[in-house]
Amino acid sequence: MGRYRSSSDGELIAACRQDEAEAWDELVARYERLVYTIPLRYGLPWSEADDVFQTVWMTLLEKLPTLREPERVSSWLVTTARRATWDRRRGAEHQRTESFDPAELPEEPGEATPEELVAEFQQAQRMQEAVAQLDERCRRLLYFLYQDRTTPSYAEIAEQLGLTTGSIGPIRARCLEKLRGILEEES
Amino acid sequence: MSDERSNHLWLEQLADFAEGRLAPADVERAQEHLSGCPVCQEELRWLLAMTAALAAGPWQEPPAAARSAVSRAFREAHQSVPMQSPAVERPAAARAGADAGLWQQAWRALRDTLPQRAFQPALLLTLAVLVLFISIYTIQQRQGVSQAETAIPSLVRGDVQVKLAEAEPWQAVETRDGSPPTPFYLHAGAQVATGDDSSLRLTFFEHSETELGEATNVVVEEVQRVDDQDTVALVHRRGRLVVNVEPERGQSINFQIETPTALIQVTGTRFVVTVSADGTTGVEVQEGTVRVTSETVVAEVSAGEAVTVRPGEPPATVTPTLIPQPPTSTPSPTSAPPANISTRPPIIVPPPPTKEPTQVAPPATVGPTPTPPLLFLPTPTRPPLPTPTAVILPTPLPTATPFIIPTLPPPPPTDTPPPPPPTDTPPPVPTDTPPPPPTDTPTPTPTNTPTPTFTHTPTPTNTPTPTFTPTPTGTAAPAGTAGPNPTSEAGSHSR
């Protein structure tokens, strides 16, 4: 799979058309979280998210020879995943999957465009990688501050990390600066 | 830029401001400065974008079964490509083929060397029996284990994947008429996952069985026999398990199942465990008695009763309720239902909450951000924010857009109301969106919509380890490698 690690999406599609299973695996690895999370965000239970996930990739497999803009396969995946999700929710799974070109789908108002969602996804990936490079204290502090769903108070965080309440603020600023440094370095 | 530098707000102040932690007087000062300082506005915008990206909901990894199905589909569609993912399948099959070839060769060799008339039924029978014995022997040799302290899979149906140990890859279980082609055993540490419309049975110590329903994930944590005491411990992560516990003759068995919210212990009974996506555990007992523990609360559940344990709810909610349909079998004599349970009014067991999230209509385009209230910034006239020269997060973040809320929430740190427990119906969604600004109206994307499906899973990579990091206690900043020290005079603006 490593062979295609740095290939562009378009190159991966081209390789898939040449029966390169490794390219396919790389494509799946690249976007599996994107595809799988969409139905979950729409509130489908796990088991149905699994179905949507497989439906999307099977559809891609089918469309592979005729996919019009290979470089934009990520957006195509988003649209297809949304479509499959809506079909599930409507319980009309089999009604519309036949003649189905995601490009024809109307955007729902107020919804992120596929491009925006892909950008968010890629950014989250970058963010995750950047956070992973931070030292443990920063990672934990940022987790408690911004990711912990129980929204612990400063006092609770301080206790968890063995810090004083007053030091949380300055350390947080430093950790955010470090994170910015890492992200800047990469881009 | 440089002449105003000393007046700029520090990142620390901005973060406090964004999180509503500044004292009221400081809030006013900060607002005043921000309204006239594009640099700090940009800084704040960056900060909000970054913290929003941090707080965005996790991107979930699909189950291995779904992934490998997709991988397999490609290879099936592009026939000539060899299968790679479930690596272990191949060798096993190849080996079986090689063995068969060997026997054929041996047979031919034998036939060629023996005179024709030697092929009489008796001889054939003897040879067949011999071959059978040797085959069984070699299979057992190959496994190299006794069957006693293992889970034995059978009745494999559909897509079933196993992970023989933590470090092993997931592999698909090949089936032939419901049985694995080569018998195999699961030891402690193995993990089994079923796909949709799939199932299998695991047998422990001859008589105790669990049937994994579809989309079920179970870890075999312990299978052990010490003298006449057998122990089976399973970790049931999701899906449905039908359990039938029966000690082997002369043995006693301790059978326990750990779910995300409860521990279920058995000593000889039949019951069904369901684990929903959010960890909610349902236990229906058909025969005998089961002990269900949630944190510190213990409930004895008898035949014909059921309990539901929801995550995040006080353990007191472990309340046995009656199963709608009467139990067909009598409870085992050793475990009469306790008085307090049988006196409870018959309550219909509510349907498992798995489907509830589907009611949540609005699509959440950005993950839930119940954490800090990020969106308040005073820019009454909303001057266009200058495009920064060094954008850290190059993609435009939706969260950064709704920038204008003149009124600030009170700054004390205890401002944010705790989010409701995950099992509750999600908080009202659309009303959370910040009111559009009075002057110009950017359409704010509904960034605040919480998606209840995520609440139980923190991003795995960021999960803090429980070990404490000893650190200096003062405000003095230790080991500032990259970031400037905010407590010092020099501006903490890096730009």
Q: How would you describe what is shown here?
A:
By secondary structure, chain A is mainly α. Chain A has helices spanning 9-17, 21-41, 46-63, 73-90, 114-132, 136-147, 154-161, 165-186. Chain A is built from 8 helices and no strands. In chain A, helix 1 packs across helix 2 (21-41). Chain B is an alpha+beta fold and 495 residues long. Helices cover 21% and strands 20% of the residues of chain B. Chain B has 7 helices and 16 strands. The chains are: A mainly alpha (187), B alpha+beta (495). At the A-B interface, helix 2, helix 3, helix 5, helix 6 and helix 7 of A face helix 1, helix 3 and helix 4 of B.
What are the defining features of this structure?
heterodimer, A: about 190 residues, mainly alpha, B: about 500 residues, alpha+beta, 16-stranded mixed β-sheet, elongated, disordered N terminus
Provide the fold topology:
The complex is a heterodimer of chains A (187) and B (495).
Chain A: H1 9-17, H2 21-41, H3 46-63, H4 73-90, H5 114-132, H6 136-147, H7 154-161, H8 165-186
Helix pairs in contact in A: 1-2, 2-3, 2-4, 3-4, 4-5, 6-8
Chain B: H1 11-18, H2 24-36, H3 38-55, H4 64-77, H5 89-113, H6 121-143, E1 151-157, E2 160-163, E3 171-172, E4 191-194, E5 199-204, E6 208-212, E7 217-226, E8 229-244, E9 252-258, E10 263-266, E11 270-275, E12 281-287, E13 289-294, E14 297-302, E15 305-309, E16 321-322, H7 339-342
Parallel strand pairs in B: 8-9
Antiparallel strand pairs in B: 1-5, 2-3, 2-4, 4-7, 5-6, 6-8, 7-8, 8-11, 9-10, 10-13, 11-12, 12-15, 13-14, 15-16
Helix pairs in contact in B: 1-3, 2-3
Could you list the spans of chain B in which at least 5 consecutive residues all have pLDDT below 50?
1-5, 81-103, 110-119, 138-146, 314-319, 325-495
Distance from N terminus to C terminus of chain B (CA atoms, Å) equals 9 Å
Radius of gyration of chain B: 32 Å
Question: Care to count the β-strands of chain A?
Answer: 0
Q: What general outline of chain A do the C-alpha atoms trace?
A: elongated
What's the overall average pLDDT of chain A, rounded?
85
Q: Count of helices of chain A?
A: 8
Task: Sum up the overall morphology of chain B in one term.
Answer: elongated
Query: What is the number of beta strands of chain B?
Result: 16
H and E string of chain B: HHHHHHEEEEEEEEEEEEEEEEH
N-to-C terminal Cα separation of chain A, in Å? 24 Å
Largest interface, with Cβ-Cβ < 8 Å? A-B, 86 and 109 residues
Biggest sheet descriptor of chain A: none
Which percent range fits the helix content of chain A? Answer: 55-70%
Strand share of the residues of chain B?
15-25%
Question: Per DSSP, what share of the residues of chain A sits in E-state strands of 2 or more residues?
Answer: under 5%
